[in-house]
Amino acid sequence: MVKIFIFRHGETYDNKHHDFSGWRNVDLDEAGIIEAQKIRDALQNEHVSKAYQSDLLRSQRTLEIVLEDHESVDVITDSRIKERDYGDLTSMSKDALKQKDPEDFELWHRSYEVAPPNGESIKDVEKRVLEFLNDEIPKWKAGDVIFISAHANSIRPLRRYFEKISIEEMCSYENIPGKIYEYQI
What we know:
By secondary structure, the protein is of the alpha/beta class. The protein has helices at about 15, 30-40, 55-65, 95-100, 100-110, 120-135, 150-165, 165-170, and strands at about 5-10, 50-55, 75, 145-150, 180-185. It contains 8 helices and 5 strands; from the N terminus they run βααβαβαααβααβ.
């Protein structure tokens, strides 16, 4: 049996101010550091063997904090679990866009197949996350404990894979900072 713990990075300035982060490389804010410390405390007794982070600072900083009490962990950076690319929406206010153009906001924000201008759809994110899982799961051995420090939109397909949920459910769920999802395979 392999235990997998997936968690979203802690809060950032963009999260707090409802801005589209996408691939923008923002760090954790004070609340995000506290959220990462809560994840660390919740997982401190797990004997993690392998940990994954995206190539974005907020994922890496969260994992760094979570692993403070762990030694000799194999940490792998993989861009396939990074946040969704919001393209032209990156750094825009979600609130302002929703007020200005509510139809496009809903379409771009949660549509499975429609990408924002010059960005990725959730389907695009799912494709790369499934490639990650198909490459990495065969490398895991019985007894392994896996940590994955991911993002709201990369957690969507991870949850869909492990929970066997529908596309509609996957797109509707909010994956809040600091929440831990635990699976066994």
